[in-house]
Design brief:
With about 200 residues, this protein is of the alpha/beta class. Helices cover about 20% and strands about 20% of the residues. It is globular, with a radius of gyration of 21 Å. The N and C termini lie far apart (about 80 Å). Keywords: Leucine-rich repeat, Repeat, Signal. InterPro entries: DNA_repair-toleration, Leu-rich_rpt, LRR_dom_sf, LRR_N_plant-typ. It comes from Hibiscus sabdariffa. This is Leucine-rich repeat-containing N-terminal plant-type domain-containing protein.
Length: about 200
């Protein structure tokens, strides 16, 4: 009888410990995502419509911020869409901590500067749209290591040099848009490796 009476409190303690650990982990994850997005906010130098200035506040849940979508399962940020907000700024390295991100769009803004290598941590990315901004320099070769990437939009920027041969690693890629840049040279991509490629836009280079 003593053993039977002892089991319910023990089971309750174990379940409570598991729940507390899970809750603590989820809270830490949300805090990580929040910190990454606040870093981006601090790198915005022009927000004429005050969209981030008034909406991205620690007094509300990250998942309720404009342009942010969270997943139901892990309660992490899975999509970030800041397209056509007339924003000016740079991309901070902390965005590489959004490890559950599937879709990332900042098209039709005025982002500039270099792209941090920490973005390579976004290994779940399927959609990436940096089109119509002011990014320059050579296209980073590490774009070719997003194994799940299905669409990549880098059109209407100031990218120079050649198209990285690493793009040939993107076996799931369906759309590649690089038009209106300053690219040149030969295309050293094994197109047969990109067996799912349907749309390729290279004009005005």
């Amino acid at each position: 009888m003593a053993t039977a009476d002892f089991l319910p409190p023990l089971m309750f303690f174990l379940l409570f410990s598991i729940f507390r650990t899970t809750l603590s982990t989820n809270s830490l994850d949300i805090t990580t995502d929040q910190s990454a997005l606040l870093a981006l906010k601090s790198h915005i130098t022009h927000d004429p419509h005050h969209l981030l200035a008034t909406n991205w506040s620690t007094s509300t849940s990250v998942c309720n911020w404009i342009g942010v979508t969270c997943g139901f399962r892990h309660h992490r940020v899975i999509a970030l869409d800041l397209s056509s907000m007339d924003l000016t700024g740079t991309i901070p390295s902390q965005l590489g901590n959004l490890s559950f991100l599937h879709s990332f769009s900042i098209c039709h803004n005025s982002f500039h500067g270099s792209l941090p290598t920490e973005l390579t941590n976004l290994h779940r990315l399927k959609h990436l749209d940096f089109g119509n901004n002011s990014f320059g320099g050579e296209i980073p070769t590490w774009f070719g290591y997003f194994a799940k990437l299905e669409s990549l939009y880098l059109y209407m920027n100031n990218f120079t040099g050649v198209i990285p041969s690493t793009f040939g690693n993107l076996s799931k890629l369906e759309t590649l848009s690089l038009f209106n840049n300053n690219l040149k040279g030969q295309i050293h991509i094994r197109i047969d490796y990109c067996s799912n490629l349907i749309r390729l836009y290279l004009e005005n280079n």
